[in-house]
């Protein structure tokens, strides 16, 4: 782990409550991400969360803990692959900030405390996921972000 961080900013034509729900409620995340974000206690600080694939096995892809939650404004999570859970040096952190700007939201994701494999993975993953989120909220249609992997 080092001081590298990934920062992504986008603007979404939707109210903060809709963006917030799309980030945290599994019924929404499945539609644009093909994964479900689940918290064991409604995203309260200290609660555990899981990122579960929308596949037949409901594979748990990521896990972590909620570090900060200011509804519709800021969410901070630890982020780790389940196989590396015991290794504290492999835990990364994601901060998601929403800032209302008129009839839109400025969404900022800062993913830090990165090790090299995670940095490579999230620098490809976050832009696709957040573009799909933006498309989903603005048009009702997510991007088919997994189309290339299904066609192989």
Walk me through this protein's architecture.
The protein has 152 residues and is of the alpha+beta class. The protein is 30% helix and 36% strand. It has four helices and seven strands; from the N terminus they run βααββββββαα. The chain has a seven-stranded antiparallel beta sheet. A hairpin with a 3-residue loop joins strand 4 (60-70) and strand 5.
In short:
This protein has 152 residues and is an alpha+beta fold.
Secondary structure layout:
Layout: E1 6-12, H1 16-24, H2 26-33, E2 35-39, E3 48-53, E4 60-70, E5 74-79, E6 92-101, E7 104-112, H3 116-139, H4 147-150
Shape: globular
Which structural class matches the secondary elements?
A: alpha+beta
Helical segment count = 4
Q: Tell me the name of the CATH class.
A: Alpha Beta
Radius of gyration: 15 Å
Across the major sheet, the strand order is 1-7-6-5-4-3-2
Strand and helix order: EHHEEEEEEHH
How many domains? The number is: 1
Please describe the structure with a list of short key phrases separated by commas or semicolons.
disordered C terminus; Alpha-D-Glucose-1,6-Bisphosphate, Chain A, domain 4; 152 residues; alpha+beta; seven-stranded antiparallel β-sheet
């Amino acid at each position: 782990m080092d001081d590298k961080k990934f920062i992504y900013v986008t603007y979404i034509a939707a109210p903060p409550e809709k963006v917030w729900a799309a980030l945290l409620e599994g019924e929404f995340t499945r539609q644009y991400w093909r994964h479900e974000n689940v918290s064991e206690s409604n995203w309260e600080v200290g609660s555990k969360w899981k990122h579960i694939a929308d596949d037949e096995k409901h594979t748990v892809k990521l896990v972590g803990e909620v570090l900060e939650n200011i509804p519709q404004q800021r969410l901070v999570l630890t982020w780790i692959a389940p196989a590396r859970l015991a290794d504290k040096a492999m835990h990364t952190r994601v901060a998601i900030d929403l800032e209302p700007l008129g009839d839109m939201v400025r969404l900022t994701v800062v993913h830090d405390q990165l090790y090299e494999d995670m940095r490579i993975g999230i620098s490809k993953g976050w832009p696709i996921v957040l573009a799909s989120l933006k498309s989903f909220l603005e048009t009702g249609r997510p991007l088919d972000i997994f189309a290339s992997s299904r066609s192989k």
